[in-house]
Amino acid sequence: MDATTDKDPLVQEQIYNALCYLGESEPEEILNACDEYLRQHDKLAYPHRVIILKAMETVVKDNIGLLEKSTAKEVIRDWQQAASNVLVAVGQRFINKVMEEVLTKFQPGILPHYFVMQTFANLSVSNGE
User: Fold this and answer.
1) Residue 5 has what pLDDT?
2) Where are the domains of the chain?
3) What is the pLDDT of residues 88-116, one digit of tens each?
4) Which of 53, 73, 89, 95 is deepest in the core (most CB within 10 A)?
5) Alpha-helix runs per DSSP H in 64-113
6) How far apart are CA 117 and CA 111, in angstroms?
7) Sign, CA torsion 64/69/71/76
8) Nearest of 77, 76, 15, 95 to residue 47 by alpha carbon
9) Using an 8 Å Cβ cutoff, are 15 and 54 in contact?
C-alpha cells in the first residue's frame, strides 16, 4: 500500500485494482489491512488516503453479503470517519464547495447522520478565524 504515494496515476490505479482484486477472495482481510494501514499512517496525504478508501468502498459494496456484521459495522464507522476527515482537510482550502456539499445532506424533517454533523462541526472548527 506504500505505493499509493507514487505520483504516477497508473501506479495508483494499479494499487487500487490490486486491493479490489484481493478483496474479491479475502474481503475481511483486505478491509482489516487497509484499516490498519490507515491507522498506522495517519499523516498520509489525503489524495493517497482516498485511493485506499475507494478500494475499501468497492470491496464492501462488492462483498457486503459475505461480511460478518461486526466487520461491516467497524469498517463502515472507520470509513465514514476517514471520509469526514478528507472533507474537513479539503475544506481548509475549498470551504464553500465542501459546505455546499455537506449542506445538501440536511433535509427538512430528517435527522442528519452523525458523521454529517461531525463533518459540519469539524469544518467550522478548522476554518474558524
Assistant:
1) 75
2) 9-127
3) 888 888 999 999 988 988 888 998 888 89
4) 53
5) 69-91, 95-103
6) 10
7) positive
8) 15
9) no
CB atoms within 10 A of CB 43: 5
* Beta carbons of 104 and 112 less than 8 angstroms apart: no
**Predicted pLDDT of residue 29:** 92
Q: How many CB atoms lie within 10 A of CB 60?
A: 18
Q: Give the dihedral sign, CA 14/61/54/33.
A: negative
In tens, the pLDDT along 46-92 reads 788 888 988 988 898 898 888 887 776 776 777 788 788 888 888 88
Q: Report how far residue 14's alpha carbon sits from residue 4's, in angstroms, rounded to the nearest whole number.
A: 9
Cell 471520509 belongs to residue: 83
Cell of 40: 498506522
Sign of CA dihedral 71, 73, 77, 80: positive
With vertex at residue 34, the alpha carbon angle to CA 32 and CA 38, rounded to the nearest 5 degrees, is 115
Distance (Å, whole) CA 112 – CA 107: 7
Half-sphere exposure of 40 toward its Cβ, with a 13 Å CA cutoff? 8
